[in-house]
Automatic annotation (TrEMBL):
Pfam families linked: VWA_CoxE
Species, as recorded: Labrys wisconsinensis
Protein name: Mg-chelatase subunit ChlD
Family annotation (InterPro entries): LolB (IPR050458), Uncharacterised_CoxE (IPR008912), vWFA_dom_sf (IPR036465)
Amino acid sequence: MTAPLPLDDLTRWRLILGEAADGACRSGGCTLSGGALAMDAALDWLYGRDDEDGARNISRQGGRGASSLTTPQWINDIHRLFPKETIERLERDAIERYAIEDVVTNPEVLARAEPNETLLKAVLRTKHLMAPDVLVMARKLVQAVVRKLMDQLSRELAVAFSGVVDRRRHSRLRTARNLDVRRVLRDNLKHYDPDRRRLTVERLHFFARNQRHLKRWQVILLVDQSGSMLDSVIHSAVTAACLWGLPGIRTHLVAFDTAVVDLTRDVEDPCELLMKVQLGGGTDIQQAVAYAAGLIDQPEQAIVVIISDFFEGASEAMLVQRVAGLTGQRTRVLGLAALDSEARPSYDRAMAARLVAAGAEVGAMTPGELAGWLAEKIGR
């Protein structure tokens, strides 16, 4: 990617405000040319689809040559003209705001696209429209994003399940999160240079950690695969894959709408798992909870995580009864209204309250927070 074009403040405002600011721009001595003109064309190709009131206007194609751009050309232009953060925002708006589907159904576009969660969601929503050759490229994009998510969550899981810091003991294991900062500063203060205001550290000290002694646990993730829960579906697949490798934990991943699909055999390959997910349909949560109950070997060593917006399409009374049955046998039940990087829930609060009354815990978590919650329950 080439370096983005440096812009003065007036030119930036002109690009933000669009063609309507041409008069003010000229009176201030600003005229778009060269790279700035190309940036304006790329922005107008996308945002020119809105009319003056901000409503979508699909027939409008923008001005100053923007209408001649194809989607692959637009992708190439924004990668050449804008910084990475802007590229991701433009791609996200193209998919989520304007539903420009060929961003993820054209092989040229996929070859240039920056792998990110927005594009991953678009692929999962449109994969049924893709030709076989496009699907191969889309799968590579999915793999790249999933690998990044797994790397991040694996580190968080390692911290959550590594045991608590023991400040009475030190270890030769050199890990940043175990650094004994106070002792390091105390032992190395004699090497402080006041003129250069620099401390030379000759020796580091690290706390030890108490190891967790885990019993054999079952963790059953029930994932609502309705379209509104797509973020949670993605992060559930990644979470299940990371949990799969932990000693002492047997993980199940079950997707549901009005049917129940056990995806456990695909957990080790979250990319393949996500490519199999069928989004949409109704919601029968109680049926999924009943399926989970049938998987449990030792009730007191089982955790059922229900990831849903809790808008039950079947019997609400039966859902509450089934959850009460699980908690009554001392199985831990966690209801998650969202499982993603933002943990911003949108859910049926009345149903959530009824599940809490039945003995469940309900909230919204990031995958890292779920890892910490699991580690706390399992480590007791």
